[in-house]
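Researcher: Good morning. I'm working through a list of sequences from a screen, and I'd like to move beyond sequence-only analysis. For each chain I'm collecting a predicted structure so we can compare shapes side by side. This is the next one on the list. No need for commentary yet; just the structure.
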Amino acid sequence: MNKFKVIQPSGLLAPYVKQYWFLRMEDVVRSSQRLVPLECVALSFHRGNFAYSSQEKGCLPRSHLYGITAGYTDLVFSGCIDFISIVFQPAGTYRFFPIPPGELKDRQTSLDVLDDLELLELEQRLNETADDLACVGLIEKFLFSRMCRLGKQDDKRIHAVIDAIRQGNTDVDSLAQTACLSYKQFKRVFSEKIGANPKDFLQIVRFQKLHHLMQLHTGMTLAELAYECGYYDKSHLIKELKDFSGFTPAQLFNACEPVYSGYHGLFRSAFIDLPPE
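Model: Good morning. Structure tokens for this chain:
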């Protein structure tokens, strides 16, 4: 049985959570996936067999926080795959966990090292729960509890900046003005809330736009893609694409599965199937 499901968060959590992912595959002989940079943090619970992570150079932590990363990670699975992932909005994570988002950067942080008994209890309850909607209920109960405990926080500035970036503003000085902060203050606050500095975050957003356009197989040339996504030229695009995905443009075009709807869109923006060795 192979099954992938996306469940949207409740309205009160939507400003902080993008989606919940459920992925189950049985009797997998060997599956290799490349995880490329996203502009958000994810909390994953793996209830299946152990998986290998190139970032960890060993077994992927069974349950972990996956921080914003400036490179790609190869994952190798076999046997049973059973993942639950909470994909947060760019400024969502700091509302729920005591660890600063910046400390998660370029890391897959095991829950075992966070000294968070409530999070470990959530892991245990999810391991004992088969129904997807019941799992979402457990997750949202945990998240609501954390929100109430932390109390109201001033999110308006950082959300205004994220909205400006989504509308195409990529100038850091202008974004600092949107936040009503000095350039130096803005870089510090942005890094604290998001988990990456503004420059790195904007590069990931640009890469994801490029990746999405390549998935659509629009027929655009590299020069057209470079212009549309804000790269200086083709050489700049090729270098950044290689840094973030490990692929040349031709290799990524060949690896991209067409995405015609938003249902699989975010998942396919993160994971790329690798050919059998």
